[in-house]
Design goal:
The structure is a homodimer. Chain A is an alpha+beta fold. Chain A has helices at residues 34-44, 48-51, 53-57, 68-82, and strands spanning 2-3, 23-25, 30-31, 89-100, 109-121, 128-138, 144-155. The two termini of chain A are 32 Å apart. In chain A, 35% of the residues are buried. Chains A and B meet through helix 1, helix 4 and strand 4 of A and helix 1, helix 4 and strand 4 of B.
């Protein structure tokens, strides 16, 4: 089941709202312009195929491509705008299996697909939990350009898991 | 054995020059200023603890911290400046086990440690190979702030592995 929007507004979203198995695809896109690619790469990744359009034409990619770290930054922009709670996000321990699957070129319009793959409440700090999310960034031809698994530490709405907070549970 | 510089200049460095087991530590640092942290995060990761110094003081980190994607971008800047060949780097398939181990704060001076962990010539395209590098970014107190394993596709100097290019080998 693919959802087009999150059922809970981003500023009211907590650990409990990330339900394993749900996939979100957001229509909003970020268009990566040539000047964005060059500006980012001049500061952080000045390889010729990221900063020099003329030499890049004769290179293996046949033109300028975005730094992979620029692509991850664009992914984060969409994640912060649509998926990651603006009130409950505490930190990220890291990401796994990050793959730059296809080049990002000037004019590409990127969008986000996110699937909740694991949700685990902290045993030592039950006011929070870790959510693992399989993330894909897609271009305007629906090609995946970036894939990774993110970990996010999120505050919980309730200190206790549902059903253990004193309210009558199914077996009460 | 920790080396302070690469034996081969960056513009003459090829696949064969990345020798498994060698660790490089480069003295050069990048200092991350508060305005850099805020500018990067306003564009890509506008969470309050990255963009708002006043609210960040009362947050869990006790002050502003850099976006993790800003930290990876700084890592790439040092990698491109000191480690990754400027003539033989073809692409990167991705990275594994990326971990933001400690916060990066305004004024932190970051430097690079890189260990070649695997080097494998392509079977299908013997003019290139994949190098896996364990990377750490350290701050001015020698604390690791970022850890990841990078993969880089690099052009080889010689199409054939050493000892198979027709020159007399040790057993000739």
């Amino acid at each position: 089941m693919v959802e087009r929007s999150f059922p809970v507004p981003i500023d009211q979203r907590y650990f409990e709202d990330y339900v394993v198995g749900t996939t979100y695809e957001f229509d909003d896109t970020v268009t990566v312009r040539e000047k964005d690619i060059v500006a980012f790469a001049e500061e952080f990744d000045p390889q010729s195929f990221h900063v020099d359009p003329d030499s890049a034409v004769h290179g293996q990619f046949g033109g300028l491509i975005a730094s992979g770290w620029h692509t991850t930054a664009v992914m984060m922009r969409l994640l912060a705008r649509h998926y990651l709670s603006s009130v409950a996000s505490l930190a990220s321990p890291g990401v796994d299996e990050l793959r730059w699957v296809a080049p990002v070129r000037p004019g590409d319009a990127l969008r986000l697909r996110a699937t909740v793959v694991e949700s685990r409440r902290s045993r030592t700090k039950p006011d929070r939990g870790i959510v693992r999310t399989a993330i894909e960034l897609l271009n305007q031809r629906d090609e995946v350009v970036l894939r990774l698994t993110a970990m996010n530490l999120l505050a919980a709405r309730s200190v206790l898991p549902e059903g253990t907070d004193g309210s009558p549970g199914p077996s009460a």
